[in-house]
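hi! just following up on the protien thing from before. the input was this:
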Amino acid sequence: MTIMTKINDDRFILEIDNLSQELKKQKEIEKKLRLKLEFFNLLFETLPNPVFYKDEKGRYLGCNMAFESFTGKDRAQIIGKTVYDMGPKELADKYHEMDTRLFEKKGSQQYEWRVKTATGKMRDVIFNKAALVNEDDSIAGLVGIITDITHRKLREEAVKVSEEKFKKISSSAHDAIVQMNDRGEIIFWNAAAQKIFGYTWEEVKGKDLHQLLVPPRYMMAFQNGFTTFKKYGQGNAVGKTVELSAVRKDGSEFEVELSLSSYQEHGIWNAVGIIRDISDRKQIEKEKEKLIIDLKNALNEIKTLKGIVPICASCKKIRDDKGFWNHLETYIQKHSDAQFSHGICPDCKKKLYPDYV
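and the predicted 3d structure came back as:
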């Protein structure tokens, strides 16, 4: 064997070894790609949302099991078909229009529309679609995913109806109804609140309730209580009816009756307060208390004669509690507010002045 032959054999062995290593790497890459493909296929099939993809002419190329279940058709009935083969024309026209727009503008697309399901019922859905583009920037097709929002729409409608009812009721209420979020901001303010406090809805919307309505001397106590409320939805006034002072827009203080409740929405505590202006009632109560005090004082000043009064059977003098005898009129004046004016009765006139009668 010559030296050249040995060199060529070594090179050949080296090349074979390199090719073997490359093949080994290639197999590892293919294995990883296969695992990834299997993963994505599994993910695609197990997604709860219906997913589909189409070619550049709008024909279905594939879908997942959720799409089959949603439409009530198997893939053999879907692949190669267009939207006009899948449902009513009035719905298909909208699908085709939106696909055309996506192909023209490329990128992605989102919109709400209605779909007829396998059961024949109409469902509200959101379409999220994206255009597939070739290397030469030409359209290759699209991929889309459907999200059923029927229940969400029903809840939104129910909430809307409830809100409308609440607004109608609150607008006719004589008491102020004020709602506050976990930041202390006013998020609802009815007509009675405007009448009682003097602020319009535009003036209070999003403003700090405590800064507007609470007297400065109570601010610290309210802020401390609000810290607890934000965490637990509880406080000294929650679930109770309390009387306290509030401030009007003009800065004047007045007394109110507050009924406060809390509720949690999306994990956040909110408060609703029903506020009644009781300043007139409190003024009447004060006047009533003053009147009662005045009456008591008047009664205490009234002098009355009561019990057994010792009186002389002959001269009609009265004996006081010290044993002294007093003329009748003197005794009565001491023991009452009565005053005497003197005159003479007809019988005494006859007796004392017979010549003149």
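The two ends are 191 Å apart (CA to CA).
Residues 3-46 form the longest helix (44 residues).
cheers
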